[in-house]
Amino acid sequence: MSRYNFKTTEARWQRLWEERGSFVAREDPAQPKYYVLEMFPYPSGRIHMGHVRNYTLGDVVARFKRARGLNVLHPMGWDAFGLPAENAARDNRRHPAEWTRANIADMRAQLRTMGLSYDWSRELATCDPGYYKHEQKMFLDFLAKGLAYRRESWVNWDPVEDTVLANEQVVDGRGWRSGAPVERRLLKQWFLKITHYAEDLLATLAELDRWPDRVRLMQERWIGRSEGLRVWFAIAGRDPAAPDGRFEIFTTRPDTLYGAAFAAVAPNHPLALERAKADPALARFLETCQKTGTSEAALETAEKLGYDTGLKAEHPLDPSWQLPIYVANFVLMEYGSGAIFGCPAHDARDLEFARKYGLAVRVVVAPRGEEAGFTIGDEPFTDDGVMVNSDFLNGLDVAAAKRAIAERLEAMGVAQRTTVWRLRDWGVSRQRYWGCPIPIIRCAGCGDVPVPEDQLPVVLPEDVSFDKPGNALDHHPTWKHVACPHCGQPAERETDTFDTFFESSWYFARFCSPNARDIGFTRDAVDYWMPVDQYIGGIEHAVLHLLYSRFFTRALRDCGYLAIKEPFAGLMTQGMVCHETYRDAAGDWLFPEQVKKAENGRLVHVDTGAPVTIGRSEKMSKSRKNVVDPAAIIDGYGADTARLFMMSDSPPERDLDWTEAGVDGAWRYLNRLWRLATEPAVTLALDAPRPTALSARADQTLRLMHKTIAAVSDNLDKFRFNSAVARIRELSNAMADLSADGAGEAWVYGQALVALIKLINPMTPHIAEELWAELGRPGMVCDQPWPVADPALIIDETVTIAVQVNGKLRGTLELPRDVDNKTRHPRAAARRRQQGRRSRGARAARRDQGARGPARAQGRGRAEPDHQCGGIASSPGSCSAGEGRSPRGGAAWEG
RNA sequence: GCCCAGGUGGCGGAAUUGGUAGACGCGCUAGAUUCAGGUUCUAGUGGGCGAAAGCUCGUGGAAGUUCGAGUCUUCUCCUGGGCACCA
C-alpha cells in the first residue's frame, strides 16, 4: 500500500494546473459565463484563516460551476494602497512600495499552496501606475460630468502627526498613535456625488435577490430615505420676512403638530450661535454639547439635555400659540434642517425631554376606540390611530392627517414636502502618500485644472522621505511644482490622494481585461463578464465598499464605460473563523501551540506543565493569541485538509470554530478516501458494462450514489457546503460495506468511486486529481463534467410510511411506492387498529388528565376505535399516515 | 435605546413544503488488530425507567393553531451582531 503523500501530490498538481493553463479564462460568447470573485486582500504579508475560508468558498464555487459547463472567470489581485504601508515606512524605515511588493510576493506564494483555481494571468495590484492611471481618468470623467466636486468639510486633525485621522483612528478624542487631542479642522476636499444616485441605489436593492437580506437592510438604513415636511416657524417678536425672523424645521410627523410642546435647534444651529453671543450660560452649554459629541460611548448613554433660549416660536397654525425654543443636544445640524418641533406624546425622545423640563404632553393620536381619555404614561404612542385634539384633523388616521396638514401648510406658504436622505456625498481626499494621486493642478489664475489626459498617469514619486510628520507627498521637494496646463504659469499639483475605497470600487471590472493599456477595461470584456455572478467576502464591507462599488458602476455607466449598473448579482458574506482562547494562571493569553492535553485530560502549558484555563471561542485575533497560522496547517496536513475542514463544519454565513479535532477528522477522511480508491474491497473494473443482476446492497448503493449526486449538486447550488460534505461521507460509508461476493457490487463500487472523486473535487482538488490519475482515468478531474443523477434511481422502490395516532408514532410500514391510496390507507389503518388496541386504555387515562380541554379529548376518543384512515379532510380525529424519508417530499398527504 | 440574526445531544451541526428529531462529523465507551509513531476496524452513544422487548420525556421558556410543530402564531428569557438620539 502507498500512503497518501500530500506534500508531493499538492505541489505536483499545482504545477500542472499552472503549466496547462487549466484556469485561464477566455471570452467565448458562445458559452455562458460565470464570474466568481472573492474580495481581494490587503497585502499585509501573511494570509490568515479568514482568507483561507473566503478563498476556499470562492474556489469551491468556481470549480463546481466550471464542472457544470460554465465559462468561469476567477481572478485574484491586491488592494495594495493603504495606511499600514506608511506605518511600516515610519516604523521600519522601509519604503511603502518595496514593503508592499515584498508582501504581495509572500502572500501570493502562500495562496498558491492552497491550490486555488485562479487565472493568475489576470493578477493586478492597485498601486501599479498601470492600474491607477485609469481611475485618474475616471475621476476626470466624473468631474466633467458633475459627479465630482471640491468643497470644505470637517476632518479629524492630529496636530502632532500633522495628518487627518479616520474616525476609527480617534480614540477617546485622541489620535491613536500620537495620543494628542484631535482637532476639528475645515479642509477643502474632493467629493463624489453618490447622493445623485440615492434614489436608485435604494430602489434597486429590491432587485438584488441573491444578496443577504441583512446587507440590503443595512444599506437601506445607511441611505436612509425619509419623506416629510419642511415647516417655517416664525420667531415671536421678530419680522417673519427677515432672514433671522424665522427658522425651518423638518418633520416626518406633521400630523402631530397640534401636540407640539417645544421647538429645538442643534447646538451649532445659527440661531443657537447667535444667542450664545449674548448669553454666556448658553455658550457654556454649547461647549458641553461639543464635548459629549466626541466620545461614542458617552453619546450612547447621554441624557437629553436642553437649554431654553428664551425665544418663542409661533405655532404655524395658531400664531397666538407660542412654543419655547430650546437648544438640544440630540438635534443634529447635519440632518434635515438642524431644527425640530417636539411632540412628547408621540416620540420617545421628545417625551423624555418634556418630562425633564416640565413641558405639556398633549395627546393628538389615540388608539382606535380609545379616543376619549387616552393618556400617556412612560411610553409614547407611536402607532397608527385616530387624530384627536387637532382641529380640522380630528377623526382622520395618521396617513390622512399627514396629507391634510401638508396641503394646508403648503397652501399657507409656510411648508414644503421634501425627501431627506441620510446618505452623504463620498469624501475621497486623503492627506496621505501611499495612495493614488488626484490628477489636479492648482493654479492661482485658472483654479483647479484637470491634468490633461495625455499626461496620465500622475505617478507617485518613489523618492520620498518619512522623516517629517505629515503627508510625504506634500513634502517632496520638486514633485508638486509644475506649470499650469492652461496658462503655463507656475502651479502646484494636488498632493492629496484617493481614499483606498476608490481602487476597490472598480477592480472587478479591471479583471475583465487586466492588460488593457489605454483604457481601464474593454467594452467587449465587461459586456461579456460583468456583472460578478457571485461575490464573496466579509460582512464588514456590507455598507461602504459595496455601496461605493454600486455607485461607481452607475457613474461609469453614465460616463459611457459600461452598460450595467449593479456590479454584484450575487453576494455571500462569510462568518468569522473562531478559536478557543487559553490563559495561564497569571491571566496572560497563550497561543494554541503553547497548550497541550495532560494525561488527566486537562490542558497544561506545553513547557511548564502549569494548568491552563480555556476561554470561549472567539474571533481569531493576535491580541488574544487564539490564532492558527494557515501556513503551519498546510505544511502539516496539506491544503486539502484545511479546505475540507473549512467546508464541513459550519454553513458559510455562520461563524466557524477552528478545532484541532476537526482538522484531524478532515485529515482522516482524506486518508480513508485514499484507501477506498487504492485498496478497494473489490476488483475494480471501471469501464465494465453494467451487470444484469445486482444484489440488494448493490442496488441500494447505486441508488444512494445517484441520490448523493443529486443532493450534493443541490447543496452546492445553495452554498450548503457542510451538507454536501456530509452526503459525500455517507456515500463513502456505504461503499465500505460493499464486498466482492455480492452480484454487481464491484461494478457499483467502481461507479461510486468515480462519482465520489468528481463530487469532492471542488473541495479537495489535489487528492481528487491524484486519485483520478491513480485509477488511470483519462484527462484531469478539473476538466471533467459534473456527474448527473439518473432521475429513475433517486426515487425509492418502497416508501416508509409513518403511522401516527393522536400524533404519536405507532409504527412504520414499508410499502411499494406505486401502491395507490386505496391500498395504502386501509392497510395503515389495519396496522393502527392492532397497535392502538394494546395501549388505548392507558392513553385514554392520560388524555383525561391532559392539559387540553376535556371536550376535545372526548371528541378524539370517540372517533378513534373504528375510524377509517382517509386523509386530513375526512379524518380530523385520530389517524394519519405521513411519508418519511421520501426524497421526493410533497407526498405526505396524497388523496 | 432601536434594529437584525440565533438558541436542537458532551461539542460543531442536519432535518426542501408542518409528517419517524438528532443526518454527517468531533468527542466518549467497550472490544479487536497493529502495538512505535496525528493508525485502522467492529459495536454503542439525547435524558429517565427497564434484564430486554419496550415505555416515556425531549429542539431556551410559556401559551396557542393542527390529526401531527424544531418548523406556523403570540408572549417571554438568553446569546451574538449592527446602529443613526435621523426628527
Features:
alpha+beta; 34 strands; disordered C terminus; 7-stranded mixed sheet; globular; RNA-binding; 895 residues; single chain
Describe the structure.
The protein is α+β, with helices and mostly antiparallel strands and 895 residues long. Helix content is 36%, strand content 19%. The strands form 10 sheets. Strands 8, 9, 10, 11, 12, 13 and 16 form a 7-stranded mixed β-sheet that branches. 39% of the residues are buried. Residues 293-300 and 820-895 have low confidence and may be disordered. It binds one RNA strand of 87 nucleotides through helix 7, strand 9, helix 10, strand 13 and helix 11.
Uncertain ranges: 293-300, 820-895
**What is the number of beta strands?**
34
Main beta sheet, described?
Answer: 7 strands, mixed
Radius of gyration: 35 Å
Percent range for helical residues? 25-40%
Query: What fraction of the residues are assigned to beta strands by DSSP?
Result: 15-25%
Number of helices: 25
Q: What average pLDDT do the residues reach?
A: 84
Terminal CA distance: 57 Å
Q: What's the structural blueprint in terms of helices and strands?
A:
Blueprint (H helix, E strand, L loop, with lengths): L5 H15 L12 E6 L10 H19 L3 E3 L9 H10 L3 H17 L16 H16 L3 E11 L4 E3 L4 E2 L2 E2 L7 E10 L5 H6 L9 H11 L1 E11 L10 E6 L10 E4 L4 H9 L1 H15 L1 H6 L4 E10 L2 E11 L10 E4 L5 H10 L7 E2 L19 E2 L10 H15 L2 E7 L4 E2 L1 E2 L9 E4 L3 E4 L21 H4 L5 E3 L6 E4 L3 E2 L8 H4 L12 H7 L4 E5 L5 H15 L12 E4 L2 E7 L5 E2 L4 E3 L5 E3 L7 E7 L10 H8 L1 H10 L7 E2 L2 H19 L17 H22 L3 H16 L8 H16 L4 H10 L23 E8 L2 E9 L4 H29 L4 H10 L15 E6 L11
Parallel strand pairs: 1-2, 1-24, 10-12, 24-25, 26-31
Antiparallel strand pairs: 3-4, 3-7, 5-6, 7-17, 8-9, 8-11, 8-16, 10-13, 11-12, 14-15, 18-23, 19-20, 19-22, 21-22, 26-27, 26-30, 28-29, 32-33, 32-34
Helix pairs in contact: 1-23, 2-18, 3-4, 8-9, 17-18, 18-19, 20-21, 20-22, 21-22, 22-23, 24-25
This protein binds one RNA strand of 87 nucleotides through helix 7, strand 9, helix 10, strand 13 and helix 11.
